[in-house]
Write a structure and sequence with these properties.
With 100 residues, the chain is mostly helical. It contains four helices and two strands; from the N terminus they run ββαααα. The two termini are 29 Å apart.
């Protein structure tokens, strides 16, 4: 899930075991048809690549918005599944080291 109005691009990964409901049109919900690792997608959404695309291309009249049409136009890296796992593992390890 990605925020689409206000603070754009904030992500939340819904776990498979979670019962989850949302009723807000300000949230974009992505189905994982590509088989991406959700944590990898979250990290991509937090990257400077995505941040610059969102900041430069997500306009609105009074409030900036992020739409599915715009999201479909953004560039996003999609490495093979094993590489996604490796990238997530390295990022998580580095973040754990920074936290200690």
């Amino acid at each position: 899930m990605v925020t689409g109005v206000g603070t754009l691009g904030k992500t939340y990964v819904v776990k498979e075991y979670e019962r989850f409901y949302y009723k807000d049109a300000s949230v974009l919900c992505f189905e994982n048809y590509a088989g991406m690792i959700a944590t990898f997608l979250k990290r991509v959404m937090e990257s400077s690549l995505m941040r610059s695309q969102i900041d430069n291309n997500s306009g609105g009249t009074t409030v900036d918005t992020l739409t599915m049409v715009r999201m479909n136009q953004y560039l996003m890296p999609l490495p093979p599944l094993e590489e996604q796992k490796r990238i997530v593992s390295i990022i998580e390890s580095l973040l754990n080291q920074l936290a200690t």
